[in-house]
Write a structure and sequence with these properties.
By secondary structure, this protein is α/β, with parallel strands linked by helices. The protein has two domains: 3-175 and 221-245, Rossmann fold (3-Layer(aba) Sandwich), CATH 3.40.50; 178-219 and 250-326 and 342-356, NAD(P)-binding Rossmann-like Domain (Rossmann fold), CATH 3.40.50.720. Helices cover 39% and strands 12% of the residues. Strand 1 (3-8), helix 1 (13-23) and strand 2 form a beta-alpha-beta unit. The longest helix is centred in the N-terminal third of the chain and has 21 residues, at 88-108. The radius of gyration is 20 Å and the shape is globular.
């Protein structure tokens, strides 16, 4: 497949992986748009854009007349991330951002073929209570308010306006807990894990899992998501479909910590439940020493992990013993995308990437 692919949200986990993936292919011309530039070098065209500003979107996007594909990964999270998942203002902002991104391009790009966007396990109410195992795409819409529904309804309505020779198709992916490369992202659990480990190593302490019980769940590598997005650009089985996507194996968070310890040359200790969002912001001075000693990139500590400490606490579930959160990926495999990755291998590869980028020490 080839064309002009427009990626919204390239400074985030999924958007950054999509930018790296499509930028590496000669057949694709890439335009990336977000408020902040990606935290890595790339060959695509970058346009700074605030998706909450409709006038700015109309002006910037009206020139993208040869767009053939859109990948929408932009996300607005409130400062209190977990509470924000239930906030009407957060939902309305995310809905408006998608409208501001899609409508101006749809009005000027006659050859638009496909739009990809994202939901997640909150579609099954996983942020409210664990869903039945495994969660399936064919279930009726979970009865709770969610910006996913606002965006899904909008994209279906927008598509209906284009029925006929100019109709485009869409694909919605529902990833499990996302692991990838980004800075100052609100849902970057891997960087939270790594910074926690590196600081404990500097303190001369063993690595201890800071959460609760080892409930069974799944993870997804953003590089795997990017390959799925590539597949969806022209796969007949992806048209107007919603898919769960995971690495393909089951995990527990405590079960990942020995891999983290081995990678950083640390001893493992017994679990030590604690609230990272309270403890880790007080460790800035330790990180500053680590960064200086190892010649790391000059990134303010509060911009390194950012609000992801709260997201990490939510997943690690200190003081709790949650039920499993597992989704079925049968539909995606039957549709034709069967790629997978071992989650422990993913951890090592992504941690090495952060080290290669000068963000984590060796």
């Amino acid at each position: 497949m080839s064309g002009h692919i427009v990626i919204f949200g390239p400074s985030g986990l999924v958007g950054g992986a999509a930018l790296r993936h499509f930028d590496a292919q000669a057949d694709w011309r890439v335009t990336a748009l977000s408020r902040r530039p990606p935290a890595f070098a790339h060959g695509g065209r970058f346009i700074p854009l605030d998706l909450t500003d409709r006038a700015a979107c109309d002006a910037a996007l009206s020139e993208l007349t040869d767009t053939t594909h859109i990948i929408y990964t932009a996300l607005y999270e409130q400062e209190d991330v977990i509470r924000g998942w239930r906030a009407k203002a957060q939902m309305e902002t995310n809905a408006a951002m998608l409208r501001n991104a899609l409508q101006p391009i749809d009005a000027v790009a006659p050859n638009l073929q496909h739009v990809s966007l994202f939901q997640g396990t909150k579609a099954y109410g996983a942020h409210l209570r664990p869903p039945p195992v495994p969660a399936r795409e064919r279930w009726a819409r979970n009865e709770h308010e969610n910006f996913y529904w606002y965006q899904e309804d909008f994209i279906k309505e927008q598509q209906q306006k284009k029925q006929g020779g100019n109709a485009w198709t869409w694909t919605i992916l529902r990833p499990q807990t996302i692991f990838g490369f980004a800075l100052d992202a609100p849902l970057n659990i891997l960087l939270a894990m790594a910074v926690y480990a590196v600081i404990r190593r500097a303190e001369g302490l063993p690595l201890r899992h800071p959460g609760g019980g080892g409930y069974v769940t799944e993870a997804i590598d953003t590089r795997l998501i990017a390959r799925c997005l590539d597949w969806a650009t022209d796969a007949a089985g992806a048209r107007d479909q919603i898919f769960n996507i995971t690495n393909g194996d089951n995990i527990t968070f405590p079960g990942l910590w020995p891999t983290l310890a081995r990678h950083f040359g640390m001893a493992m200790g017994e679990p030590e439940p604690q609230c990272l969002v309270d403890i880790m912001p007080t460790k800035a001075h330790i990180w500053e020493g680590i960064a200086k000693d190892h010649g790391l990139r000059d990134i303010p500590y509060d911009k390194l992990v950012g609000p992801s400490w709260q997201f990490a606490d939510f997943n690690f579930a200190a003081g709790k013993n949650p039920a499993p959160v597992v989704v079925s990926t049968i539909k995606l495999r039957q549709a034709g995308f069967q790629d997978c990755i071992d989650t422990e291998d993913m951890l090592i590869e992504l941690l090495t990437q952060y080290q290669d980028e000068g963000i984590l020490p060796r």
